[in-house]
Design goal:
The complex is a heterodimer of chains A (334) and B (473). Chain A is mainly alpha-helical and 334 residues long. Helix content of chain A is 77%, strand content 3%. In chain B, helix 1 runs parallel beside helix 13 and helix 7 packs antiparallel against helix 10. Chain B is globular and about 65 Å long. Classes of the chains: A mainly alpha (334), B mainly alpha (473). Chains A and B meet through helix 3, helix 4, helix 5, strand 2 and helix 14 of A and helix 2, helix 3 and helix 13 of B.
Chain lengths: 334, 473
């Protein structure tokens, strides 16, 4: 009984790590995606400076998601990672390229354009690969016994490409809204002008993914479109609609912080939608969270650590963000 | 079967490549983080500008190394799954929680305070900034703690049971698992190695600048501090390495046999083979130069103690002798060379010639990379010496891999090699450029981003002018 509870708690913790990761690294990857559009010089420096102190912490949530999956659901880790071999390797290499660019572009002004390109290329590759990963997971993975049994290209479908593009749009939107909040002047104006178009693109992407999802698995269809499931699940698109309206209103009123939080809201709802589809499977259609779960002793040992550490981590992370609050300039915080 | 062997060997090459590259960075950041904490602490205590300047000098280098360590580390946390999924499934219930603790107690701590450490001095003030530096330094230590506990458990597994689906699950308490038999030795040995690596890197930078200008106060201070570390830590490390070796003899005798090149058992005192060429086909060491009975003296503290050889180990359970034999000698040889430099520096210091003996400086310069090489050689010794197992004696490497496809692994290996050489190659060039800059009386801040309005030395105004140099190569 206790073991079952812990499994659910751990599923919640992993989901929490994924959500925090998507939100936090989302905006800094998004800035990488938009980076070539910013003018060389102070605008680019400002965009980079707005995330330089926090990107490393943001990315640590990805390590917690991966490490937590290994620890709490080793079987899922052992099946999902080989199944997504190519996109995950691409994601890792993308993260390498963009991560070092934060430092290298300052160290080598003569080649700054190259590292700026590496920053964008790495961000785009990592984001696209993450989107593909989500789509491939949602559409299901071939499993035999305790191992992945599909081919090397099983992840590659129109649906996973669609989720890849959707995430590119989504992260770009988050990055855009972050810069509206954290900058001023020409860069901010430029981001305002992107935010409307990206918002429309994101809604189209959400609509397409949502329309395709129920047809991936019969179970999804029952949950999303059949009575009575639809009564509960229909609230999600409804909330998405409301937040979208609020988002566009905040843009037209030229509010600074609000668009970012509405954009986060849209992401949150999309991830809730993902959870509704998958629950209680960790690999849809084949492995439930209970089948993949580590033994009770492992879960309990980690839960003690997570229970103590996660609140502390959130506290000092919040403090670090607070230290660097306010508008950022090209030459420093003021 | 052939196909499978190829895929596994490629996966092993990939892991060896990515982990070797990665290991260089934390081996350095563990040491520099502590060094920075000491420098900032001394600066707070004494208010002497030389410490603040050295702090900023090494902070810039630290930022580059740390970034490379982070991104190469993320690769490691996923590579367990992509290439070694059966190992992950089976060992996950034990090593997973330890690695989760590493993320929760170390990675977040380092990452959370790094931003403040690099960019936040004017935002939070000196004391809180020192706290951030300490947090990062402690984070590097905690990270080493957990990941070495994981590695040590794979070398000397205890406290487990095997469940009905073949997973290792915790059976005794977690205390036993974390503090498995080889862990305390490996932890201290590795931390000392990180400190030595940093000491010799810092010492080489100091020596380089002393050779150009022996009056430079920054160069003198860093060289002096580095030589103290070398003189104190090198003997401690040799002592610790001996203890670690005895621990290995107890728990992984085959590894020690390979290190020693003992193909045959020696019932009445085993020789210490200094050099030779291991010939695994004929099961002997060719052209061996050996000291009779010295191996028994070192390992058993008795000239005539019998020592078993690889003839007592089934062939399929033997590690590759050649690699282990050589990497061990590289590590030990460098360790003694480090000790030599440390003693030489003590002699120079006692004659008040520490900054005046160019040959000492030249030697220290040559020894700059010695820590990195020794760390890698030691890592190869312990990891190759653990073969053919991932979980020692229990799970074979050949049975640990993911359902791999050789072309896919080869393609990803090639991608890693290309990206790592370009990216980390560039990074290492930048490190050399940073280290080639003469330590100035008023070191500029680490980067463009934040520190402009006021410096961390009393000479705030000078910083304004120095700003551009901070980004110059």
């Amino acid at each position: 009984m206790n073991g079952i509870d812990l499994t659910v708690i751990w599923a919640g913790i992993i989901a929490f790590a994924v959500v925090v990761y998507v939100i936090m690294d989302g905006f800094d990857l998004g800035i990488g995606i938009l980076f070539p559009n910013f003018k060389v010089g102070p605008d680019r420096d400002t965009a980079m400076n707005s995330i330089a102190p926090v990107w490393d912490g943001n990315e640590t949530w990805l390590v917690l998601g991966g490490g937590g999956l290994l620890a709490a659901f080793p079987l899922a880790y052992a099946i999902i990672l080989p199944a997504l071999y190519a996109p995950l390797i691409a994601m890792l290499l993308g993260l390498v390229l963009r991560g070092v660019a934060f430092e290298f572009r300052w160290r080598d002004p003569a080649h700054r354009a190259r590292w700026d390109f590496a920053f964008t290329a790495g961000s785009v590759i990592a984001t696209f690969a993450q989107g593909i990963t989500l789509g491939a997971l949602l559409q299901g993975i071939t499993v035999e016994g305790r191992a992945y049994a599909g081919g090397w290209w099983e992840w590659l479908t129109p649906f996973s490409l669609l989720t890849g593009f959707a995430l590119l749009v989504g992260y770009a939107l988050l990055g855009c809204c972050w810069l509206i909040w954290k900058t001023e002047g020409s860069l901010q104006r430029q981001c305002y002008s992107y935010a409307g178009r990206l918002g429309i693109l994101l809604l189209v992407a959400i609509a397409l993914v949502s329309a395709a999802t129920p047809f991936l698995e019969a179970e999804y269809y029952t949950r999303w479109l059949a009575y009575p499931g639809i009564i509960a699940t229909a609230q999600i698109p409804l909330a998405t609609l409301i937040i979208s309206v609020l988002y566009f209103r905040s843009l037209s009123k030229q509010q600074e912080a609000a668009p970012f939080f509405y954009a986060l809201g849209l992401f949150g709802l999309s991830l809730i939608g993902l959870a509704v589809s998958m629950w209680p499977d960790v690999i849809p259609g084949s492995i439930t969270i209970w089948q993949a779960a580590a033994p009770y002793e492992s879960q309990l040992f980690m839960l003690v650590g997570a229970g103590i550490m996660v609140p502390i981590i959130l506290a000092y992370t919040a403090w670090a963000y607070w230290v660097f609050r306010g508008k950022v300039g090209s030459d420093g915080y003021h | 079967m052939m196909e499978n062997d190829l895929a596994i060997n490629l996966a092993r090459a990939q892991f060896a490549f990515t982990v070797s590259f990665h290991f260089l960075f934390p081996a350095f950041t563990i040491g520099i983080a502590s060094y920075l904490a000491v420098l900032e602490g001394l600066w707070l205590k004494t208010d002497k500008g030389v410490y603040a300047n050295l702090y900023r000098y090494w902070l810039k280098i630290f930022a580059v190394v740390f970034a490379m360590g982070v991104v190469s580390g993320i690769v490691m946390s996923y590579q367990f799954g992509t290439n070694w999924s059966v190992f992950s499934d089976k060992a996950g219930p034990i090593i997973g929680p330890l690695m989760a603790y590493e993320v929760l107690t170390a990675f977040f701590l380092e990452a959370g305070f790094l931003g403040v450490m690099l960019f936040g001095i004017n935002k939070v003030g000196r004391k809180l900034h020192f706290v951030a530096t300490l947090a990062v330094a402690v984070g590097t230590f905690i990270s080493a703690f957990w990941i070495l506990s994981v590695n040590s458990w794979m070398q000397t597994p205890v406290g487990y049971a095997i469940n009905d689906v073949g997973q290792f699950v915790p059976a005794a308490g977690w205390w036993d698992i974390v503090w498995n038999p080889s862990f305390p030795y490996r932890l201290i040995h590795t931390l000392l190695a990180a400190y030595l690596t940093t000491a010799f890197a810092v010492g080489a930078v100091g020596a380089w600048h002393l050779l150009k200008d022996r009056t430079n106060p920054g160069a003198r201070k860093m060289f002096s501090m580095a030589m103290w570390m070398a003189a104190l830590v090198a003997p401690a490390q040799i002592f610790m390495g001996d203890l670690h070796g005895l621990n290995t003899l107890e728990h992984q005798p085959a590894k020690v046999m390979a290190m020693e090149g003992h193909y045959q058992s020696h019932p009445d005192g085993a020789p210490l083979i200094l050099f030779g060429i291991p010939n695994s086909k004929e099961k002997r060491v060719d052209y061996a130069i050996e000291i009779p009975k010295a191996s028994s003296l070192i390992l058993k503290h008795d000239l005539n103690a019998p020592l078993a050889g690889l003839d007592t180990i089934p062939d399929q359970d033997e590690p590759p002798v050649g690699i282990v034999f050589w990497s061990f000698r590289v590590m030990v040889g460098l360790g003694f060379a480090m000790l030599g430099i440390g003693l030489w520096s003590l002699l120079a210091r006692s004659r008040k010639k520490l900054y005046d003996w160019p040959w000492l400086h030249r030697a220290a310069l040559v020894m700059g990379p010695s820590g990195f090489i020794a760390v890698l050689a030691g890592w190869v010794t312990t990891e190759v010496g653990r073969q053919p197992f991932t979980v020692y004696g229990l799970l074979r490497t050949s049975e640990s891999a993911a359902p791999l496809d050789a072309p896919a692994v080869a393609a990803s290996l090639l991608a890693f090699v290309l990206v790592y050489f370009v990216v980390f190659g560039a990074g290492i060039i930048y490190l050399f450029k940073l280290a080639a800059k003469t330590p100035e009386a008023h070191e500029p801040t680490p980067d463009d981003a934040p520190i402009r309005s006021a410096g961390i030395t009393p000479a705030a105004a000078v910083l304004e002018g120095d700003h551009e140099e901070g980004v110059a190569p």
